[in-house]
Design goal:
Helix content is 21%, strand content 29%. It is an alpha+beta fold. The two termini are 26 Å apart.
Length: 195
C-alpha cells in the first residue's frame, strides 16, 4: 500500500537494486518511488482472512497465495506489493529467480485506506489491468463490507461491486465464492457501516 506522494524518479533496474538494500518496502509506479505505509489492525485482519481462504482453496491445485509479494507490473517502470496476490498456475519470477518479483499474478487484492485509495484507483488500476495473466483486481474496503471487482472476460474488463455481510465474492478463476462475512468476520464496524 503506497502512499500518494512519490519521493523520486528511478529506472526499474536502479529501483530493484536500491530497493533490495532498503529497510522498508517501496513501490515503483511509472518510475516514481512510493514508500509503503504501515497497515492498520483492520487492514491486517482482512489480509489474513483473504490469505487463509486462498491457502485452502489452492491446497489441491497449482498455484499459491502471497501477502506482500513484489509483483512486476511493467518491467521498465512499475513494481508493486499488492496486499494479497494469487497465482493459479506455476509462479514465474523475474529473471528466473525462485522468489519475487512475480510476473504472472492471477488475482490482486488491495485493501484500501485513505492514504492509498487514490493510487489504488488510478495508477495501479491502469497498470494492473494491462498484466496479461491477470483475471481480477479487487479493492477491499476497511470501513464497510464492500469489495469492488474488476474482472476479465476475454479481452474485456467488467466492474462490479459486492456489498453487505450476506454477500459472496465470486472468483471465476477458482470456481469459488468467498463470503464477505468470512473476510470481515473479525472486523468491528459501526452499526451504520454494515449495510
Amino acid at each position: 500500500m503506497a502512499t500518494e506522494t512519490a519521493e523520486r524518479l528511478m529506472s526499474a533496474e536502479e529501483f530493484l537494486l536500491w530497493e533490495s538494500e532498503q529497510p522498508y518496502k517501496n513501490e515503483l509506479i511509472d518510475n516514481r518511488i512510493y514508500p509503503m505505509a504501515g497497515g492498520s489492525r483492520t487492514h491486517e485482519i482482512i489480509i489474513a482472512a483473504l490469505v487463509s481462504w486462498f491457502y485452502f482453496a489452492l491446497m489441491d491445485r497449482d498455484g499459491d497465495v502471497y501477502a506482500g509479494m513484489q509483483v512486476m507490473v511493467d518491467a521498465l517502470a512499475t513494481y508493486t506489493y499488492p496486499d494479497v496476490t494469487v497465482v493459479c498456475a506455476e509462479p514465474v519470477f523475474h529473471g528466473g529467480a525462485k522468489s519475487g518479483p512475480l510476473e504472472n499474478p492471477t488475482l490482486l487484492f488491495e485493501v484500501s485506506s485513505p492514504s492509498t485509495e487514490k493510487i489504488d484507483r488510478t495508477r495501479k488500476l491502469e497498470q494492473y489491468l494491462k498484466i496479461p495473466s491477470l483475471e481480477g483486481y479487487f479493492l477491499v474496503s476497511q470501513d464497510k463490507p464492500l469489495i469492488e471487482a474488476y474482472t476479465r472476460s476475454g479481452d474485456e474488463w467488467a466492474y462490479s461491486t459486492c456489498t453487505g455481510l450476506e454477500s459472496s465474492l465470486r472468483i471465476a478463476s477458482l470456481d469459488d465464492e468467498i463470503p464477505l462475512d468470512f473476510i470481515y468476520s473479525k472486523v468491528q464496524f459501526e452499526p451504520d457501516e454494515i449495510a
